[in-house]
TrEMBL record:
Keyword Oxidoreductase: yes
Lineage: Bacteria, Bacillati, Actinomycetota, Actinomycetes, Pseudonocardiales
Organism: Pseudonocardia oceani
Record protein name field: Phytanoyl-CoA dioxygenase family protein
One matching Pfam family: PhyH
Keywords for the protein's UniProt record, in alphabetical order: Dioxygenase, Oxidoreductase
GO molecular function, one term: dioxygenase activity
Length: 191
């Protein structure tokens, strides 16, 4: 069984029910119409999602419990935005979401919530289990290169992967024929 402590991540199946998933997608559409997208070509980024559905994601009990397991009680909210690679895009180098060598206690936790079904070939998040404990930075030049021990996390829509922000991870190239929409929700250790 995958655990946050040993592997650095955990999957939360069906974190969002069908109604909440539809409401989050509507918030994304509203933000797109209001503010437009940002980011480099090929990958759509949408910021400033708001409303009751987005608040329900921030406060989802299973999500909060997993984040608190990484960061301790009452973590601070970081950012919440959509990252949605079009077909052929989305590949990233392995990285951690904290600059520099990891401090003694984790400082960042990230949840990636699938807004559509995400297959292994459709831009699934790749993770290198255990690297959150290695006390070194991720290697460069790993875009589209397999790393020993990596796993790719396929998620049905509404499910999430929560990870210690010090874990090496990346988006993979979307080799499907449709856009891969997902929320990225970031929390920080309080103080």
């Amino acid at each position: 069984m995958t655990t946050l402590d040993t592997d650095g991540y955990v999957v939360l199946d069906f974190l969002l029910d069908a109604d909440l998933l539809a409401a989050v997608r509507a918030a994304m559409t509203d933000a797109l119409h209001h503010d437009g997208a940002r980011g480099p070509g090929g990958t759509l980024h949408v910021d400033d999602l708001c409303g009751p559905a987005v608040e329900a994601v921030w406060t989802a009990p299973r999500l909060v419990a997993a984040v608190e397991q990484v960061l301790g009680p009452d973590p601070e909210r970081g950012a919440l935005h959509v990252r949605a690679p079009h077909p052929g895009f989305g590949a990233q180098a392995l990285h951690a979401d904290f600059a520099g060598p990891p401090p003694p206690e984790p400082q960042v936790a990230v949840a990636i919530v699938a807004l559509v079904d995400v297959t292994e070939d459709g831009g699934a998040t790749r993770l290198v289990p255990g690297t959150h404990r290695w006390n070194r930075t991720a290697p460069g030049n790993t875009v589209d290169r397999t790393w020993p021990g990596e796993v790719r996390v396929a998620l049905p829509a509404g499910s999430a992967v929560v990870l210690d922000g010090h874990l090496w991870h990346s988006g993979t190239r979307n080799r499907s024929d449709r856009r891969r929409d997902a929320l990225q929700v970031t929390f920080r250790r309080r103080g």
